[in-house]
Known about the structure:
The chain is mainly α. The chain has one domain. It has helices at residues 2-14, 17-21, 44-50, 54-68, 88-113.
Amino acid sequence: MVIFTASVQHAAVNNGQFDFHSWIPNGSLQLQKPPPTSKGQSRMNSLLEALPNIGDTVKFAAMFWMLSDTYTDMVPLGEYPEERFSEPHLKQMIKDFQAELSYLSEEISLRNSKLPVPYAYLNPKQVENSVAV
């Protein structure tokens, strides 16, 4: 569970932040007015008045960009730059895990090639081996 939380779940929550929240109406971190309390009360003008000012919008977009940016030293899930295990059965487990991740990556890439908007955030090639914020 810890490995899943520190890799896959983190990627699911983190990697798409800029893509989904840089358009501030999708997920603003701040509203200037309270949201409507019942259906049918919203108008374009009331929506625009509730959104943050341009300065805060730029700050939020920059923050989302920084949080979801891929680092230059990113290590994908299942990759181990330093050899930490010497036992043959552990090395085989790592190879099997890497083969399964490779298969899943190919399947996800194939599925995404048929979608109008691909969802690549959980492709093993895009998932960091651990949390890096």
